[in-house]
Amino acid sequence: MHVVTIEVPSLGNRCHLVHDGRSALVVDPPRDLAPVERAAEAAEVEIVAVADTHIHSDYVSGALALARRHGADYLLAADERVDFERVGVRDGDEVPVGRLRVEVHATPGHTRHHQAFLVREGMRPAALFTGGSLLHGTVGRTDLVDPRLTRELARQQWRSARALSRLHPATTLHPTHGFGSLCAATSVPAHDPGRAITLADQLTANPALTTPQEAFVSALVAGFGPVPAHYRHVAPLNRAGAGRAHPRPARPRTAEEVADTVLAGGWVVDLRERSRFAEAHLPGSVSIEAGPQMATYVGWLVPWGTDIVLVTDDASALGPALRDLAAIGIEGVGTHVLDGAGLTATYRRTDWAGYRAATAHDPAPPRVVLDVRQREEWAAGHLPGAVHVPVQDVAAHAATLPAGEVWVHCRSGYRAGIAASLLHRLGHHVVHVDDAWERVHELAIPVAGLAA
């Protein structure tokens, strides 16, 4: 038995292809099937079964499309209500995939009908594909289905994790979430990528397996961060089988049409590096730099269904950006390649050394320090007197900020670049502190809070 792990960095997830040398099962594939099919081709195997562990909230599933393209069975919990045909499976079912035997385990918690798939070949150690159930050092969050069910699903998550822990300790653990996806309850500890994680490893490292139920539930629920706004739209897309269709193509826009988008209240998203955006950009545009986090923040910040135009001076950046947006259900957006004309807006950008020099020169000007990190980051240490507004809430709270020039920072500069552009669009004078938070300690800038 061979397990091929396919990283999906734009989603913070993993997809898995498990095979016996001839026949393969694919677990939790993304909408972009090319990496999955390349992996199957490289292994010289036939995809005969595809499985989703649950109805995903963070990305559009490619499982239905992959199954149809390869004439494979699509395995999904029989109790899930969906608008398409699939092979409904239940706890205790066993599905043959070549020489492999796939056992279905009900693992409610992350969702109500979540399942894990245990794959065996003869007497060899099994591989367990857990989706958003038991993760490496944590579990999937339980507040995405319905806030009213959060605690009960957390109890079910604890019971599901305990049930899985009773499998053979040498069983290898292959979750989907936990590699950057906000579907994980907490961040996942780093580990040697060359070493397989087993259930034995989790017996002492995973709070779900070391903490009494109610203590675990309280700690789990208290630790949940915000839910990206687009999540509530993605699950219905998956229930409708949206991933079976090709994404609607992008629509090129002229410079005049881009300007009209701004005037009409649409979003013009600049994919260029944040430093170049600060130097010169289209008035009314927003900086969301191309990269693994781009789609998440577009989905989180742009109201669903709003007209979006992506702009960049590098046409080759558009393809990956469109693919990543389609992965979360945003498609048919506009595109425009900048030629340097009309980039008349600008704002200041500095680093922590520049901040220290400015505060030493004039410690009490009308300056607002805005920290746009998340709650747990703020609690771990922040600048004295700073105002805390997480990046996803900046636009809504812009009018309530104190008067003065707004110096915006985060942990690395990425989110601060987004927030600075939002505030600048709304008429604030901003300075983007584009530097790593660790530099604050290196430069002996005073810090308040737990890390002081």
TrEMBL record:
Keyword vocabulary terms for this entry: Hydrolase
GO aspect biological process, one term: hydrogen sulfide metabolic process
Keyword Hydrolase carried by entry: yes
Parts forming coiled coils: none
Pfam families: Rhodanese
GO molecular function: hydrolase activity; sulfur dioxygenase activity
Gene3D superfamilies: Rhodanese-like domain, Ribonuclease Z/Hydroxyacylglutathione hydrolase-like
Domain of life assignment: Bacteria
Protein name from the UniProt record: MBL fold metallo-hydrolase
Lineage summary: Bacteria, Bacillati, Actinomycetota, Actinomycetes, Propionibacteriales
